[in-house]
Amino acid sequence: MFDIVIFLLLLSMLIILYRFLKGPTLSDRVVSFDVMSIMGVSLLVLLALYFQRSLYLDIALVFGLIGFLGATIFGRFIEKGL
Fold this sequence. Notes:
The chain is mainly α. The chain has one domain (about 1-80). Helices cover about 90% and strands about 0% of the residues. The protein contains 3 helices and no strands. It has helices at about 1-20, 25-50, 55-80. The mean pLDDT is about 90.
């Protein structure tokens, strides 16, 4: 069960990576960055459940905070500039 979910999550991350690299606008790239960070956190949580290691949950928490801050900073840059 975990194998199928992890495979589908990685496949969808590859599709989002394509949008990140080829996005026509900067807004598309920011949204795809945010989606990839959320999917990365989800992948780390699934790996924590699969391997029964709580260390991955700590890493997922930090990665989630960094992804949120990154998306917020990019959004502010698009809106007003630095």
